[in-house]
Every structure is written in C-alpha cells, then in structure tokens.
Amino acid sequence: MHVLQLVADAPEPLNIGALVKASGYPRPTVHRIVAALVAERLLVENERGAVLALGPRLIQLASRSWGRSDLRLAAVDELKRLRDITGETVHLAVPNGNTMVYIEKLESPSAVRMASRIGTSVALHATAVGKAYMAALEPAVLEPLLQELPLPRYTGNTLVKLPELRKQLQVTRERGWSVDAEEHEAGIFCYGAVIRGSRGVPVAAISVSTLMFRQKADPEAVYVAPLMEACRVISERIAETPSLASAEVL
User: What does the alpha-carbon distance between residue 99 and residue 238 come to, in Å, rounded to a whole number?
Assistant: First the structure.
C-alpha cells in the first residue's frame, strides 16, 4: 500500500530507483513488491519497464467502491439540489487520517470549472470540509489530531499556526459552518458544513465552492443557508439508515 500510494501521489511517473529512495525500502524489496503489484494489474510498466503507473484493476475497484457507497447514495439527491440552487461546485468528503477525501463532486454549470476530482485527498486545515469536520469533533478527539496535524502552506491565506487554526475552529463551531478563504487555492472561496451520524458524531462534510470574481453579494443566504439545509436532511437520512449511523462503517 505504501508503494501504491507513492506512485499515486507522484507528480511524474516513478522508476524503481525513485521508489527505493521515496519508500526507504531496500532495492530487492521494492523489486519484489512492484513485481507482485504488476502481476495483479495494480501497477503497470511502460514498454521499457522504466517507469510505473497505476493499473486498470485499481480503477475497477475504485469504481465499484464509489458506485456502492451508501453515504454517497444517501447524499446525492441533496447534493444535486444544492448544486442547482447555488449554481456552484459541490463536494462531498469523508475523513481519512489527517486529510479529507472527496467521494463526490458535482460541477458548477458555469463555463469555468474547478480542477478537483473524486478521490483527491485535501488538507484538514486549509479546506472548508476539513475545518467543518474538525470543528464538530469532541475535544478529546480533536486535540490529539491537532497536535500531529501537518500545516503546510498552500497560499498566502493558509492558516499555518495552531493558535490561528484553533480560533477559526471555534468560530466555525459557534456559527455551524466553515470557510476556506482562498486558503487552499488562490481565487477560490468555499463554505463548508458537517454531516453527522449517530449521537452527533461527524462522518462527512459538504462544501460549496465559488470563484472569487463571481461570488454573490449575500453569501450566507445564497450559499450557507442551502448548504446547512442539505447537511440537515442528509444527517436525518443517515440516522434512519442503520448501516450509515456509525462513523466506523464509512
């Protein structure tokens, strides 16, 4: 899995030497792992065997997982409604360690589209979905997460100091929704809110993303109000579905 993740995250195709350096494993170990992954079609080699890429079997597995996601199926109608009301791009994300992963994206009908895609992992501290999720956590869960949370800078607006992040999480907790004010990508402003499972435990988050140049004059009415309503409806739907009520099964 470590080798697969390295290949998936690399901006350019990797060769064995680069994998040895990135993984920290001995060269014979990397050769053995790569051979097994290629045999299972989880990785593919180019014609000369010089560089590696993700294989077709991963696409098949991901497609089945995405298509059968109970959470996505429970949320998709409200996500479409939210996209249509706001006219903006909508993301559904779930927590994965110290990141959030997009499991659904509905594009804005506008001619200008966002570069994000399903399966993308994004930082907790720099995104509306991440901050909405963290703000909903109990202190006993949140504090250990914050202590180990990497805080890389993406733009000049990114919160890279814990006191600043804590302050914004408190504001988010009090008002019930979060913002990404060009913190992850310049020119993009996002509003986020959390979806809750049983006992109010946060299990996912939704964001509405708009480009700064076309942001409406009354964002709370245009974006936040329908976003909060979508999260309320989906949370109620989850509560009525036993297989979705626990965060562990997501």
Answer: 22
User: How many angstroms separate the CA atoms of 138 and 153, rounded?
Assistant: 26
The tokens describing 95, both together, are 């927590």
2-61 and 69-249 in the same fold: no
Q: In the numeric block, which tokens belong to residue 176?
A: 């019930």
Give the pLDDT confidence of 206-227 residue by residue, as tens digits: 999 999 988 898 999 999 999 9
Q: Are 174 and 209 in contact (CB under 8 A)?
A: no
All structural domains of the chain with their residue ranges = 2-61, 69-249
Fold assignment, 69-249: Beta-Lactamase (3.30.450)
Burial class (CB in 10 A: 0-12, 13-18, 19+), 78: buried
CB-count exposure of residue 134 (10 Å: 0-12, 13-18, 19+): buried
Distance CA 64, CA 31 (A): 29
Per the CB < 8 A criterion, the answer to whether 127 and 190 are in contact is yes
pLDDT tens-digit readout, 128-149: 999 999 999 999 999 999 999 9
Using DSSP, state whether 221 is helix, strand or coil.
helix
In Å, how far are 8, 34, 95 from 13, measured between CA atoms?
9, 14, 27
Instruction: Write down the residue that tokens 């708009």 correspond to.
Output: 210
Q: Tell me yes or no: is domain 2-61 CATH 3.90.1200.10.
A: no
Among candidate residues 43, 46, 36, 45, the one with its CA nearest the CA of residue 57: 43
